[in-house]
């Protein structure tokens, strides 16, 4: 009986030792998820009850009025969604290809202009021309006012993402590339058919972060876009929020006695803006973790 009791005690100790990390991770995940649940709940709550009682996990006076208020912009919000999806898809695809080409060239030790190109890339991490030269270049020299390229070109190449890809390409086995060259494959074919498939985790990571950059684009819209039909979703939601704030501060509108669903609309805007990006993150999260830790093992 004593041996059996010791064996049972040992099993309980092992169970507790294995369970504690899982419990800690569950508590941490719950604490991380809690703000998102509060935002979603508040977006479906009555604004008066939300102001009076505060936030809760369940909607207070369930209503979709906040989303209807945002949708009252008519077809503009659907057009903004279309524009945002368009620049995200095009910018991510082209940017990922350009950054991959640059990173692959920097990772090849036999590349003749490797040092010069590396210096040009790293130099941009230390020095920046500033906003005024950038604005003059985009508007006067390139003429990209009211042009979708003004939303794509500034984020096309990110030096930090290039370094992630370069690190991954440099870690790939060189014997594979040498064997391909012996079989008569050119450098561009090696890049497309060998290096790119082998670097899929890093490409997925950089692609996800690039897509999030384009999805959250609104500053360049403020600088270069004048046509309201070409604004992105983030900028349109920013305008809606600014209009609500102006209406709240207006004495004329306050004298009419009409309540503005300020809190619930802000939460609805947050859900609309972050919902697709959160789903995209869930799909590629395993690649994001692997790609983000590449530099730690080099």
TrEMBL record:
It is found in: Cell membrane. The chain crosses the membrane at residues 20-44, 80-104, 116-136, 148-169, 190-215, 265-284. Keywords: Cell membrane, Membrane, Transmembrane, Transmembrane helix, Transport. Its main location: membrane. Residues 81-284 form the ABC transmembrane type-1 domain. GO terms for cellular component: plasma membrane. It is a multi-pass membrane protein. It holds the Pfam family BPD_transp_1. The keyword Transmembrane applies. One of its GO terms (biological process) is transmembrane transport. InterPro entries: MetI-like, MetI-like_sf. PANTHER family: ABC TRANSPORTER PERMEASE PROTEIN MG189-RELATED-RELATED, POLYGALACTURONAN_RHAMNOGALACTURONAN TRANSPORT SYSTEM PERMEASE PROTEIN YTCP. Belongs to the binding-protein-dependent transport system permease family. This is Carbohydrate ABC transporter permease. It comes from Devosia ginsengisoli.
């Amino acid at each position: 009986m004593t041996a059996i009791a010791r064996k049972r005690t040992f099993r309980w100790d092992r169970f507790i030792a294995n369970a504690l990390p899982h419990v800690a991770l569950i508590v941490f995940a719950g604490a991380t998820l809690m703000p998102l649940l509060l935002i979603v709940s508040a977006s479906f709550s009555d604004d008066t009850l939300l102001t009076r009682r505060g936030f809760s996990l369940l909607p207070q006076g369930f209503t979709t009025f906040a989303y209807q208020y945002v949708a009252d912009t008519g077809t503009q919000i659907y057009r903004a969604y279309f524009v945002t999806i368009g620049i995200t898809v095009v910018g991510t695809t082209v940017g990922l290809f350009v950054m991959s080409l640059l990173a692959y060239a920097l990772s090849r030790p036999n590349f003749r202009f490797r040092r010069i190109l590396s210096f040009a890339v790293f130099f941009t991490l230390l020095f920046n021309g500033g906003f005024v030269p950038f604005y003059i270049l985009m508007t006067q020299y390139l003429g990209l006012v009211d042009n979708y390229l003004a939303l794509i070109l500034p984020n096309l190449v990110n030096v930090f993402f290039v370094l992630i890809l370069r690190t991954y390409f440099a870690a790939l086995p060189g014997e594979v590339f040498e064997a391909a060259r012996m079989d008569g494959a050119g450098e561009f074919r090696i890049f497309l058919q060998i290096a790119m498939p082998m670097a899929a985790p890093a490409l997925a990571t950089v692609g996800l972060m690039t897509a999030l950059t384009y999805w959250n684009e609104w500053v360049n819209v403020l600088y270069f876009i004048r046509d309201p039909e070409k604004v992105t979703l983030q900028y349109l939601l920013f305008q809606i929020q600014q209009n609500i704030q102006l209406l709240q501060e207006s004495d004329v509108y306050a004298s009419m006695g009409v309540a503005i669903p300020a809190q619930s609309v802000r939460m609805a805007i947050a859900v609309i803006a972050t919902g697709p990006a959160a789903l995209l993150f869930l799909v590629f999260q395993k690649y994001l973790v692997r790609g983000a830790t590449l530099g730690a093992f080099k």
